[in-house]
């Protein structure tokens, strides 16, 4: 079948794509920016890519007019705490208008479990999108899932952060809320299993794993799998706002996402029926086994996607292309260059920068800067990086966003997502003469921006000097 995959750059989309191709489907990937399509090169050659923004576009491009199935994997929960529901509704309406110009027969939507009258804003929005999609001129299949457990998923990474970093936790009352976590492998099985299945047309199905657990039990079982000792002390007086700050400072989540998650965590999400499990004959993976499978992927460096690479995980909201050209005027710069004896090894060190590798020089200063950034509402260093030595445009890299990663040009360009009074770029490039150029550019915003640059200059001098030398010479990080 010819399939349209919206949200192809997202956590689910990147996991789903290889399976669709393996099953022999012809796939058109819809992304807002083709330069951010970060799937593996061997997969890129097998798909068609179309740029679509469902908040703006309403007409169907020719590439998607002849399709059989479409996946609707679009959501905006991390974009704002106020109007993400309006954005999700508008995107769904535009999607319906666009599908009216195509030959699509079935639309598959991944939603959230809805089994309480009093829903969170997040679940209300998912329900509203369902209702909009059902008005379209096509057959709809809705899969309603709870927490998805897999390497790189937001829920898994938050539980991982909490358990790995806090042996003793003072927790809010929502840790007693029950949920039914499901392994990412089962989600992909469900998403592919309903393709063209007429029993699934115009139906909404709950999908969950075999275990019903409170959030506290999920953390305790995670700790058991990881052989960690944790103590969880629940308190009844922690407000939603305080809970959001607690998640924000302890985990790698953004504050916007933390607020929306806390709102949702007070609502039980338990499956009401098992019809789809019976129809598709799927063997459900227990929660502990899902954790083990996630860590197998992490240990093998096979994490295909992470929620942290979403643009909404940081403060950067605009089109990447607008920032690829570094401005020349009104900027302050720190330029350094050095001849490298082995350019290929130096390039590999550039490609491995950040995350667990660190920044080669003064890592403790980078960590301090990350803590300060987190304190003032920034992303800090906790996002790390998805892969230890592979980078694509659009990826998050600690408190930077990758704008350009071109190994043939031997150039890496980063844009700062930390809280700074201005805009900052960090560029690494090895030229034809095997000279490594390291350029830090800052476009200050007003007098405060200039004061910030000059106040940081002494630190920049030593950090940037040490960094370029160690990248060039391969000396161990400090």
TrEMBL record:
One of its GO terms (molecular function) is aldehyde dehydrogenase (NAD+) activity. It holds the Pfam family NAD_binding_10. Residues 7-148 form the NAD(P)-binding domain. InterPro entries: DUF2867, NAD(P)-bd_dom, NAD(P)-bd_dom_sf, NAD(P)-dependent_oxidoreduct. One of its GO terms (cellular component) is cytoplasm. It comes from the Bacteria. This is SDR family oxidoreductase. It comes from Christiangramia lutea.
